[in-house]
Fold this protein.
Amino acid sequence: MTELTGTANKKIDFKSRMVQTGRNIVKNKEKYLLILPGLIWYVIFAYIPIYGLTLAFKKFLAAEGIFGSPWIGLYNFENVFKDPAFLQSIITTLRINAGRLLFVFPFPIILALIINELRLGRFKKILQSIFTFPHFLSWVIVASVMINILGQNGLVNSLLGTLFETESIRFLGTPSYFQPLVYLTDIWKTAGWSAIIYMATISGIDVEQYEAAEIDGSTRLQRMRYITLPGLKPTIVVLFILAVGYLMSGGFEQIFNLSNPATIRVAEILDMYIYRITFRGSVDFSFSAAVALIRSVVNLVLLLTADRVIKAIDGTGLLA
Amino acid sequence: MLVAKKGRGFSRQRFELLDAVILIILLFFAAIIVIPFVSVVGMSIATQKETLESTLMLIPKHPTIDNYYRLFQDPRIAIGYKTTIYILLLGVPLNLFLTTSLAYGLVHTNYPGAKIVFYAILLTMLFNGGIVPLYILMLQLGLNNKIWSVILAYGVNTFYFIIMRTYMTTIPGSLIESAKIDGATELRILFRIVLPLAKPILATVLLFYAVDRWNEWFNAMILLRRQDLIPLQLVLRNIVIDSSIVDSMSIAGPRVPRFTEGIQSATIMVTMLPIMCFFPFLQKFFVKGIMIGAVKA
């Protein structure tokens, strides 16, 4: 008997909830109208391409398109892993981007710490403007500027020529210089901008901590080490996790514009490999989709792993 | 305020060695950023003869606009400007429309389905299809080689969407509630209350989108393969980077550049100049914008 009323109650409960949801929908109909255009955009230009990655398991037929092409299982992946250029591009990507974590990532932190210690207020603003400007230029422009100053008649070679009377160095055409070139130009373009996030965090650190430490007779370097740096830690952690998430995909625009046939051997990262096989050779969209799917999945796994590992060590993470 | 002033006076008394070191480091970094631009400006107004002969030339002795004159005879510059301005003028309003309406619609996620939509949008930051499916999609939509492909491919930047939404959540709910009681529609509230209050963030996002549109090249390289629809960035790429590739292949010996350094520098200048002109405005807003974003992250 009680059981019966229980289910009946549940039924009524469910029904009334449906009615309420219905009312809610009607009440908020304007909201739905507002989000509709953006939502349509996301469905067509973000989610259909995500679904399009299923081409990795299909044989792409132009007439059938993304949705109609027939499934062929793991055939494409077998081919992908048979291509030595694919494996090479993964190694190159990991090598370049791991180096980025090592050499480029700490730079904005150091820059923010140093700018923070600068005591000339107005001068500080001018310097910061200079540091952030390159961020707003595309990699096409930055690479062009670099080609200009590093070229045979460029500034750097004529400086070296005047000082040491060396022959002109092929900075852009020598494979062994390529990785340092990537890191230095990356710092040149992005350090000032990335430093802003750290500066914002520093400005949020409680001033009383500094005052107390000053009264206790600490030096500025000590305060930098024991107050500012720990205050920056949560921001550093978040940005580090994101950087790990980009290990497989970062840097296409930079490397595509800085590399040339002389350095391509050490420069072809995964995204450039995808570009080459898709748009520069015999087109096999299914093959490309298989590579792209591997890339996306590995990225996601890296991001989540970095997040979990840091959470285990430190207790703070990106995702709840 | 008083404390800050006191602090400054205090520190001015003790300009220590550390301050000098800091200043030198920062000036050095600033010089490394500025000097390449000076070099580009210098080369763009120098004669080819002076570029080749003089060592360490930053400011040429005989400035000339010859390089710019010759550059503008290349029809691609006009095509580049035209395409880029089209992309900018059609693209940015679309970006703002989509981003603003979506941000305001999702300020509160207390109605059915809103949370799912919000998280589905955030998910695209972690996982995306990439260029290959997008290219096929454009082929199937028949947008390939049309300017709309580039405009539509970049509709909402999820990061800017988050910044804008976060800003809108700071607008007091009581303002909106009282307007609703007075019988105002959502659209009216958006235009009369929310947007005027969100002006700083609108300006920030507008400028971000404008810069992104100006710098657009990758999607255009994939989706627009017509000689009469090249954006300015790709014109620059053709003139500077492709001709440098020819240089890097020729081993020593006399080299015959397809474009002189002067013309290459002039191309960099015409591509960069608008950003340089807008930079002071950008600067005014971006710190605010990225701070909101940083707080969220």
